[in-house]
């Protein structure tokens, strides 16, 4: 993902900063998508084909396991 884009993107809900979490693979080998994380709102916005989907309705709510 383009670093310049990451510098200007903010959470659409609170306008706070986002952290880029790269995709990888789960323990069972399933590929995981990259996400942009808003710690303040505890939301993870998906990044699909290097395009951030900045819609609150598309965001995943972070659980306690996602706290790190």
Can you describe this structure?
15% of the residues are buried. The chain has a single domain, classed as N-terminal domain of TfIIb. The chain is globular and about 35 Å long. The chain has one helix at 3-8; strands at 19-21, 34-38, 43-48, 51-52, 60-61. Strands 1, 2, 3, 4 and 5 form a five-stranded antiparallel sheet that branches. By secondary structure, the protein is mainly beta.
Short description:
The protein is mainly beta. The chain has one helix at residues 3-8, and strands at 19-21, 34-38, 43-48, 51-52, 60-61.
List the helices and strands and how they pair.
Blueprint: H1 3-8, E1 19-21, E2 34-38, E3 43-48, E4 51-52, E5 60-61
Antiparallel strand pairs: 1-2, 2-3, 3-4, 3-5
